[in-house]
Each structure stands twice: as C-alpha cells, then as structure tokens.
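Pasting two entries for a bug report.
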Amino acid sequence: MTAFVQAYSFVFSVEPTSIDQALSDPDWVNAMHEELNNFTRNEVWTLEAKPKGARVIGTKWVFHNKQDDEGNIKQGKISGKGLYQMDVKSAFLNEYINELVYVEQPPRFEDPNNPNHVYRLSKALYASTPSWYERLRDFLIEKGFKIGRVDTTLFTKKTDDDLFVCQVYVDDIIFGSTNEDQCKEFGEMMAKEFEMSMIGELTFFLGFQIKQLKEGTFIYQEKYTRDLLKRFKMDDCKPIYTPMATNTKLNINESGIRVYQTLYRSMIGSLLYLCASRPDIMFSVCLCARFQADPRESHLSAVKRILRYLKHTPSIGLWYPKGARLELLGYSDSDYAGCRVERKSTSGGCHLLGRSLVSWLSKKQNCVSLSTAEAEYIAARSCCVQILYIKETLLDYGVKLSRVPLFCDNESAVHREETGAASGFNDRERYDLKSSQTAYASKAQLVQNSSNT
C-alpha cells in the first residue's frame, strides 16, 4: 500500500513525471516544501526510530497542477460579479487517527541526521470528508449561513437585497453573490480560517467548461468530449448528424458476436457522465446502457454512432440567459412498450426555469404498462416528483412557486388525473402512484399540451 502525498505548483505549467524532474524546478521544490511544512505545522506526523517488526507504509510524490479547460495554471482573484472557486489545502483536512501507523520519509526529503527513521502518524494523510464537512458546516452556520433544505452541501445567506450562495464539493468550494464585496469578504474569511487558496473565476470544474458572459452563462463539455473520442480511438471517425436512427430497436441479440465487456461499460460510463450537459444524447445512451451485462456487436455499433454524433457536435451545451422570468414548466412523454426485451415503456421529461433547461430524464419504467394512458401517467408522475424537488431547492434561493404546469400530450392521462381514476393502473405501480398523487394534485397543475393534440 502506498500513501500519496500531493503537491501543487501554481507557476510551472509542466507536470513532472519523476522526482528528479520535479527537483530540477525551484517552483516544484517550493511546493513540496510547503506541503511538508503543512504536515509539520498541523502535527500530522512525528519522526521516530523504526520499531522492530513494525510494518511501514511507503510514500510517493504525486505532482498535479490545477488547470483550466485550456491547460493553463489556475490562479486568480475576485473581480466583478460571477461564480468563483476555492480549494482547501490538503494538510488542513487531516483528522486524528487511533491506529498505530508508520510511513517512510518522503523520497529525497529524508532527515539528514536520521535517514532511517520513520514517521508515526498522528493524523490521517488523507482527508476525512465527513469531518471536514461538519467543521465547515458549523463555521458557516455560525457566520449566519443557512443550510439547504434538499442539498445539504448548499449554503445561502441573504443580506438586504443581496443573495450569497456557496456550494461545497469535497475540498472545493464554488461561490457567488449579487454583491461583489461579499465575494471578496468571503474569500478572505475562508482563507484565514481554513488555509484555502483562491483559484479564481469558475471556468472549469469536474470536466465542465463554464463561460460566464454578460448575457448569461454557457456550460459545456467540449474538452471532455474530445478526450473521450480520443480515448476510444474515435477522434478520426466520420461525423454523423443524429445520435440514433428513429427506427432503432435494440434487443438482446443472443446470436450476435460478443464484444469486450469492459470496453463497452467504459464507453457507457463515459457517455452517461456527458449526459449531465447533453440532453440530446440521453435517450440513446440510456438505451445502450441496458445491454452492459452481455454486449454484442449491434450494441457497440449503436454506441459508436453516438460517438460519431459527438464528433459532429462537440461544443453543444446548456445556455442560461440572464434576466429570464423564473417560471417553472414541466413536460412529460413516454415511449409506449419501446423496450423490445421486456415490453416496458420509457419515461421522458424535461423542466425549464424560464428559458433555461434545468432538468431532464429518460428512464425505463419499472413494469409493463397495459395502455398508453398508463405509460403517460407514470411518466407524468416521474416529472412531478422532479418538480417538487426543484421547488424545494428554489426556496433556498428565495424563489417560491405556487402552481407549476406540467404538460402532457395524452388526453386519457389528463382525464384520469382530473377524475382521480388512476387507481385502475397496474397494482405494482399503484403504491408509487398513490404516494406521489397527493402531492401531485396539490403542487402541480396537469395541463394538456394543446400544441401536440
């Protein structure tokens, strides 16, 4: 087992591949010293003589730069309104451990007087996410922040007419405010309390590229898409204009040639992550994902077609314009008995907040629907659940919605909701329908999409 000690350099743009290469650059040497000093300052370890018979864990340097989507080193300051990112220094996250653990001295940084000594750990080299979150939560609440009703990693604070929002993801914090001064004060407060570093304006996070413009914000995954195509050797493929043919009906295809299961699953997993900003491929990817247990050539061909479509559209993303009216709308639909294997239907839906798409879904229903009306009603139920979730989340931002229209293009499903006749649906779905129907009737208004009837 190897303990990894991460060091971050914010000046040198090339990440070293070996300790010798790192030691030849003063910036990386300074970063390594800073990391070791953090361990000493936070009393993470103590240098001792190696006990007889003790098992010692090896250590290894891992060099990594915080970069943006263009590979530039992330270093920034707060200037203007927008979203910003901070991250906490790793040594601060260490918590006390009860076990007796010994690790080797970091390579090339051995104590000259005691080169054969080892470090006895008082705290973990790696962070404990729960303990870090609990301390951060208590600190923010003490400073007047409110924790999210639905998302407990969301913290908000209202001051007069200004709103401050803070989102925590492990050791990264994304924050923004309608008041620029509040952002500066927050950055200084966090850096002082938690030894955090300011990365700057949010432009790249977890594979997502973010462009913050005067007219709005654009979120996309072009770099991730191109890396995905390159990883699966599809970067030179012939582009195509649709992710899947309209008449595509995949089945088990037991007589087809088996393909490498690990490759197929890796492709599906990568594409599912891309669906977070690409609703246009969600149905196609979810359909192909049903055959991961025993993929065949026909399934792989369908996945490769999606990749060819991504080759044609690598920069498609989500646009969130400023100044849009905060009106929540829901749309639901279903693909009746579209699954050729189990004859189950697929629920589909999307939700728009003003002119912005904020949620979408494509999910195979739990059991076989006996009619199109039942399939449509089950799809509407799924969309209603999401509406209730969005409404609760919006309360943290000071947005309260009373009635939310949910558009459905099936007259029978609308009639059953209006008359309360949904109890005639499949017994296996009845419990889920009943549990959401009360909230469904009181919180959302099911209306017929006149444009589709």
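Entry 2 (this is the one that rendered wrong in the viewer):
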Amino acid sequence: MILEAVAELAKEYRESGEPITDDSTNLHKFSYKLEYLLQFDLKEKTKFLGTKKDYWEYFNDCLAKVKGANDGIRFVKCITELKTSLGKGRAFIRYSLVHQRLADTLQQCLMNQSVTSDWYYSRSPFLKPHLSVDIINHLYELNEIQFDVASRGHDLDASWPTFASREKELEIAKAGAEDTCAKQTGMLERITAEKKSIEKSQLEKSAIQEKESQEVKGKLTMVEGQLEVSLKDVSRLQAEMLDLRVKVKRSEEEKLKSQAQVDVTEAQRDELRTLTEQLKAQTEALNQSHALIEQRDREVAAHAEMAISAAAIREELSTLKAQNARLASENVEIRESLHRANTEMAELGITICKLSAEKEEVREHWEGDAAKIEELEREVDRIENSMEELQLENTKLREELTDEEKLLETIAELREKLEKAKNQMQTATDFSREEAEAIKFQMSSESMNHQVQMKVSCSEPAIMCV
C-alpha cells in the first residue's frame, strides 16, 4: 500500500523535474496511507484534560531527548496555530519530507522498542521486523525527492491540504502575528512568575495566614484580569490567522476547535491551576519560537561556513592549477633531456662502433706481433740448438786438446772463437728476449687500454639511463 504511493511519487518527480507540492494527488494518497499506517493498532491514550493522543505523542516520546533528531519536534511545538495532536503529527511529517528525514526519523523511533511497544499493539507492522525494515527501505527512496510543502498556513487540525497555498502572504501575516506574540512574551513571563509565587505562598500559608490569603486573592484577581487581556489578544491574532487561511484555501471551512474549557464552578485553587497550566503551555510555545530562531541562526552560520569552504576550495584549485603548470614545464624539460639523452646515446653508439673497429685493428696487430714472437722463439730455439752443437764441438775440441797437447795455440784460438760465439749468442738471445718482452708489454698495455675504453663505453649508457 505505502510502497505503491512511494513509487508513484518517485515517478512524478522524475517526469516533472519539479518539487512535489500540495497540488500532487500522489502526495495526497501517500499522506493518507502513511497516516493510516501510523494510526493502525495504535493504543488509545488521553491527555490530562481527556483529549485523545495520536502518533504525534509517539514521535515526541521517541525523539524529544535525542540530539540531532528533535529539530522537527521543537519546530512543530512553535506552531501555535496547531491545536490538536493530529495536526501536529501532520505538520511533523511535512517537515520531515521537506528536510528528507522521514525515513531516518521513523527508523530512530522503531529502534526504541520499549516506547514503540508501549504505543502499539502486536498487530502493528512496526512491531514486526520484516515488515518494518521493508517500510523503512522504501521510505528512504523519498530522500531523492524534493518536497515543497509548508508545515504552516494550512488547517492541519482538520485535514491534509488538497492544494498549494500562497506562502508569501501567509508568511507576512505570520510574521506580524509572531511580532505581536513576542511583545506579549515579557508580560506573560512576568505574570507566570508572579502566579508561581502566589501559588506557592497560597499553598504554604493559606491554612495559617488568612490575611495573606486575601492578598493572594486580590493579586490573583489582577493576574486573571491581565491574563484575560492577553487571551483576548491571542484570540484576536488567531482569528486574523483563520481569516487569512480562509482566503488562501478558498473552499475550506473554519474548523478551529477549542480544547480547554474552564469550569466556573471549581474552587479558586482549581481555577488558578488551570490558568497556570495554560500559561505554561503558552510559555513553552514561545520558548520553542526562540529555539526556531536559534535554529535559523545556526543555518545562517552553516551557510557562512559553506562560503568559507568554497573560498578555500577556490584557493586549492588555484594551487592545483599552478602545480599543473609547473608539472607541464617539468614535462617539457624532461622531454628535452630525453631528446639530449637519445642524441648522446646515438653518439655513444658511433663511438662504440669506432672502438670496435679499433679493437679489430688491435687484434690483427696483436696477431702480427704474435707471429713475430713465434718467429723470434724459433730463432731462439735455433740459436740454442747452435749452442748445443757448439757445446758438443767444444767438448770434442777439448777431447782433441786432451789428445793433442801440442795444438795449444789452435785451442786458444778456438777458445777465443768459442767465447766470441758465446757472447754473440748471448747478445742475440738477450736482444730477442728483450724484444719479446717489449712486444708483450705493448700488447698488454694496448689490451688494458682497450678494456678500460670498453668499460667506460658501457658505463656511460647506464649513467644516461639513470
């Protein structure tokens, strides 16, 4: 039932793109169905004067002391034109729709199981978890819908509004009425304080001090006169507001109901108590109006904070733009560095090719030197073989010298020749070895230089890459 009404409201909002007003028939259906749901299996309770309580008192019991969730309660209590619990409950529902808090509010109430069980019988869907969860989930869909419905300016005590009222005229009239009520606040507070003092004195001293009782009665008569004047002013203001409501709604009848009746036959103490209760109610309503003003001040402060936050966001945006420009400049520099690195890499590749060619030349030169060394080694071997032959020949000559002592001069000559041959062979051997060592040293130095160049060539690309 309620689920279909929510779906129809969502569809209307999507198709029109405009906030839902009291002209919407879908809003009428939803309001009646939601109220039926809230009143279904609701326990009957009465107030002090015998008037029937409604779901407004259920919301009040659940939310009055919950911080952050009682703004709507305090707002509705400030609406002095609402006289019945039913009208206040309807105003609270409309306030919750406008502020997109209906689902949160009902969920907060249902979480309080003790209060909910105290207000509803077992057949209520609110006491059945599977049904209550489904209802809350669908009511959360209303948070996506904008509502333009006022909690003031309609006779919510009588019925739900059937068309949108002219909010501007009513607000002007309401502002004037509230100003007039504000002027009466001081006087009512003084009257209330004086009445409390009189009542306290009467209760404490009425049995023992007859003179003070007569003074209290006199003051009470004066207070009642002042109260009667104040009540006449309030009645006049209410009559003016009812006239405005009749002009705005055109077809609605005046259904203002008076709930308080004064029993003229009661004792003076009972009359005093009744008047005190009425003054307390009016004082509470005025205090609630002050709370509404404080709420508006908080909203203004919140708007100021939002403006400050917007300025901070703009500054942060400017900072981000500057950072973006700096990053773009750094990106250009990085691209230029990358281009230079690529150029140097190309030059390095050319250098590596040159070094490779030089390496080939060194290798070929080394191979030529190796051939020379091999030839010198063969020469050394030949000389060594010659030395061996000379040594053999020397041995033979020595034998001949041993056999032929007479050939001393020949032997001396042969020895000289032998010594010369040895010196020549030693000189040739030393020269060959020195030349071989020089060639090896040269080749070793060239090889080391080549290795160093290759290491440098390999390390430079790594540095560029880093």
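Dev reply: Rendering is fixed now. As a check, the viewer should reflect this: Residues 133 and 450 are 85 Å apart (CA to CA).
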